[in-house]
């Protein structure tokens, strides 16, 4: 569709609050749909996008009892190949998509028992995966640690470089004649006659728009606390990733993840860099810790130690790599581990947040759903989509309206706590 902006002068079709991978993906797809778009973020891409390793891992991130999430994540993964091709063509730069598959490992017998239960879960949902002998695993990944007891191959779980994706999205959004990225923080949403009509930034400037998408990760919750009629139960869950630079001969060929005495760890490798101080080296991202803590931007020494200890139990050659970065950031989590995607009960207000561990994986699908809602084509998408019923049910499970807004406190006349 190429619909031209119908907004009055000075008023945009869309304001997106948050310039991480989700916000910029929404902005880009909205520009492609013909809307005029302003993105507000004081430091675009410096939230969880900056820490993310970039696994596109519906199978190896699958959780027992979370069937809707699994179907959502499979649909998200299916969007990535065309999204990456489109974005690379539009931006004229790569996004580091590696269709390498994932080797998943169990360090001790208890870890292997859980790995087999996960393989059975894949089998029940028709997701491709197979147990390997250690010799077969070593053929795929010769640098495997000597003490690893079990292995499986998951051919459909890949990885992308989130920082490269973000840089490409920034380029296409900022360069677009109808796009703008404003490096200011939204401090509140503008409301008028029960509608959200834009956002006010930290200099007091008003950014008026027909629609507003809040894609500010865990910070979406405090921003929307004052908007009646909407509930955004998004909380920060802190994680830490490490970045290392390795000689290509010492870098894994696939995404490697595993359980080490019950602790999950993953290692994502990139292609060798062609420029910069680490030209000829491969970036490795090791992740990730997970704690119910705020985004304090502190890298705990114990977390750095634990990640290195567990990663080198799977891939001892990590000892030879250079540790160049420890990146603590908080993921935006929700009570049911599903994101909030689409229109709210409040006219003009849409959400794209709460993606927890799968913000990179779900960015293309989220952008598609949000823009369908913005351009009023949602019902056409709903009926005409080629997605199977389980995916449509999973998409409906991300409806932000599933959380009822908090009722005013009846103990005081104005609802304020005493
Ligand atoms: N997606 C992996 C993580 O959140 O650590």
UniProtKB/TrEMBL annotation:
Catalysed reaction(s)? Answer: glycine + O2 + H2O = glyoxylate + H2O2 + NH4(+)
Which GO MF terms are attached to this record? Answer: glycine oxidase activity
Query: Which enzyme class, named as a word?
Result: oxidoreductase
Ranges for the region named Disordered are 398-418
Reported EC number(s) for this entry are 1.4.3.19
Q: Domain named FAD dependent oxidoreductase: which ranges?
A: 13-371
Q: Under which pathway is this protein filed? A: Cofactor biosynthesis; thiamine diphosphate biosynthesis
Pfam families, per database record? DAO
Q: Which UniProt keywords apply?
A: Oxidoreductase, Thiamine biosynthesis
Asked if Oxidoreductase is a keyword of the record, the answer is yes
Q: Does the keyword Transmembrane helix apply?
A: no
Against SUPFAM superfamilies, the record matches this protein to: FAD-linked reductases, C-terminal domain (SSF54373), FAD/NAD(P)-binding domain (SSF51905)
Q: Which PANTHER family match?
A: GLYCINE OXIDASE, SARCOSINE DEHYDROGENASE-RELATED
NCBIfam families, from UniProt? thiamin_ThiO
Name the record gives this protein: glycine oxidase
Name the species this protein comes from. Isoptericola haloaureus
- Lineage, please? Bacteria, Bacillati, Actinomycetota, Actinomycetes, Micrococcales
Q: What is the name of the gene encoding this protein?
A: thiO
């Amino acid at each position: 569709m190429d619909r031209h902006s119908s907004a009055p002068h000075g008023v945009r079709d869309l304001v997106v609050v948050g310039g991480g991978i989700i916000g910029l993906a929404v902005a880009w797809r909205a520009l492609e749909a013909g809307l005029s778009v302003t993105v507000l973020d004081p430091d675009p891409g410096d939230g969880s996008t900056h820490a993310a390793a970039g696994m596109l891992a519906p199978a190896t991130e699958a959780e027992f009892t979370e069937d809707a999430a699994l179907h959502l994540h499979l649909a998200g993964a299916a969007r990535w190949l065309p999204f990456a091709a489109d974005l690379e063509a539009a931006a004229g730069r790569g996004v580091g998509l590696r269709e390498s598959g994932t080797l998943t490992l169990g360090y001790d017998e208890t870890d292997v028992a859980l790995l087999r239960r996960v393989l059975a879960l894949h089998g029940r949902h028709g997701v491709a995966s197979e147990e390997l002998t250690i010799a077969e695993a070593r053929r795929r990944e010769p640098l495997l640690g000597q003490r690893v007891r079990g292995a499986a191959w998951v051919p459909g779980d890949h990885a992308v470089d989130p920082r490269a994706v973000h840089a490409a999205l920034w380029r296409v959004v900022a360069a677009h004649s109808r796009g703008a990225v404003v490096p200011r923080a939204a401090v509140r949403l503008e409301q008028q006659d029960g509608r959200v009509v834009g956002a006010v930034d930290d200099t007091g400037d008003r950014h008026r728009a027909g629609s507003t998408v809040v894609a500010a990760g865990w910070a979406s919750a405090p921003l929307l606390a004052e908007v009646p009629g909407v509930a955004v139960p998004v909380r920060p869950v802190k994680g830490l990733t490490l970045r290392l630079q390795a000689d290509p001969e010492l870098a894994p060929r696939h995404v490697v993840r595993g359980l080490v005495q019950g602790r999950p760890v993953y290692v994502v490798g990139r292609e060798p860099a062609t420029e910069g101080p680490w030209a000829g080296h491969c970036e490795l991202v090791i992740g990730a810790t997970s704690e119910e803590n705020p985004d304090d931007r502190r890298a705990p020494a114990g977390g750095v130690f634990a990640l290195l200890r567990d990663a080198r139990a799977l891939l001892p050659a990590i000892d030879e790599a250079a540790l160049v970065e420890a990146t603590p950031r908080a993921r935006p989590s929700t009570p049911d581990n599903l994101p909030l995607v689409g229109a709210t009960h409040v006219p003009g207000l849409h959400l794209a947040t709460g993606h927890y561990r799968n913000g990179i994986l779900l960015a293309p699908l989220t952008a598609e759903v949000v823009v369908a809602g913005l351009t009023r084509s949602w019902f056409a998408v709903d009926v005409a989509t080629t997605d199977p019923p389980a995916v449509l049910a999973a998409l409906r499970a991300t409806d932000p309206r599933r959380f009822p807004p908090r009722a005013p406190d009846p103990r005081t006349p104005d609802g304020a706590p005493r």
